[in-house]
Design brief:
The complex is a heterodimer of chains A (98) and B (155).
Chain A (H helix, E strand, L loop, with lengths): L1 E5 L5 E7 L4 H8 L6 E11 L1 H15 L5 E6 L1 H10 L6 E4 L3
Parallel strand pairs in A: 2-3, 3-4, 4-5
Antiparallel strand pairs in A: 1-2
Helix pairs in contact in A: 1-2
Chain B lengths: L12 E8 L6 H11 L2 H4 L2 H20 L7 E8 L2 E8 L28 H8 L2 E7 L2 E9 L9
Antiparallel strand pairs in B: 1-2, 2-3, 3-5, 4-5
Classes of the chains: A alpha/beta (98), B alpha+beta (155).
């Protein structure tokens, strides 16, 4: 199960499991993001390479407008995925408190 | 189709196998299959993440690059000697050896990076061994992941 919503402060919250089957829905939502974006991963349990592709595409689109992605409350397993893919050097990634 | 209750604390079990349709929509059922056959503590931790991610990347590659293959894709899982052993089997495919896939340069500047191509690289980083067999038109991709060590050794 996966969910993506936008909170009052403009923070985009992702919850559940972002696998390849859920990417079209996430893509549809993220296509509406136009400002420098903060994504809250506190409820996100899992992301695969398909989800990483969405984040990279969004980040590059925002960079072209002078913005970029900031990911907060990222669990340790997803932090490992970012490290293994080099994405920890692409986005601003803030791990969740232990 | 085999369904089992979640395994609590076991380090060995006979192979479990299940077949899935050639569709991304099968991922939810595949996740349930994995969770049902790993020890509970591992299913929720680094091992469960690595095992499911490896299966997702291998399965979705089969779906994306061989949509016209006939037959269901079979996944087999076993616990033995503190290891998870998994086989992902496409019964009707061309040869594609994931162990020989080119590495993605993860140090490239962001402007030069493109979405996609990372799946197999992540698999290699998250499992302890990966192998491939092609017999007839059957592709079998196998991997092993240790239960006890959160850090895989394959690079």
């Amino acid at each position: 199960m996966f969910d993506i919503t936008c909170g009052d402060a403009g923070v985009v919250a992702l919850k559940g499991r972002l696998d390849a089957a859920e990417c079209p829905r996430a893509q549809q939502f993220l296509d509406t993001v136009h400002d420098p974006a903060m994504l809250d991963f506190s409820g996100l349990e899992y992301i695969s390479s398909a989800g990483l592709g969405l984040l990279l595409a969004l980040h590059k689109r925002l960079l072209a407008k002078g913005g970029g992605l900031r990911l907060i409350n990222v669990n340790k397993y997803i932090c490992d995925v970012f490290r293994f893919s080099g994405f920890d050097r692409v986005f601003k990634v803030e791990p969740a408190a232990a | 189709m085999i369904q089992r209750a979640p395994v609590a604390g076991r380090t060995s079990m006979p192979p479990a196998r299940q077949e899935f349709p050639r569709s991304f929509a099968a991922l939810e059922a595949i996740h349930a299959f994995v969770v049902a056959h790993l020890p509970v503590r591992d299913a929720r931790g680094a091992v469960g993440y690595a095992v499911f991610m490896a299966i997702e990347e291998l399965f979705t590659n089969m779906v994306k690059y061989n949509p016209v293959g006939t037959g269901l894709i079979r996944i087999e899982l076993a616990l033995e000697g503190g290891m998870v052993a998994c086989h992902v089997i496409d019964p009707d495919s061309e040869r594609f050896d994931p162990t020989a896939a080119a590495e993605v340069d993860i140090d490239r500047p962001v402007a030069e990076r493109q979405p996609g191509g990372l799946g197999l690289q992540l698999v290699k980083r998250m499992v302890d061994s990966l192998s491939y067999d092609y017999t007839g038109r059957r592709s079998t991709i196998s991997f092993v992941r240790r239960l006890s060590d959160p850090v895989p050794k394959m690079r």
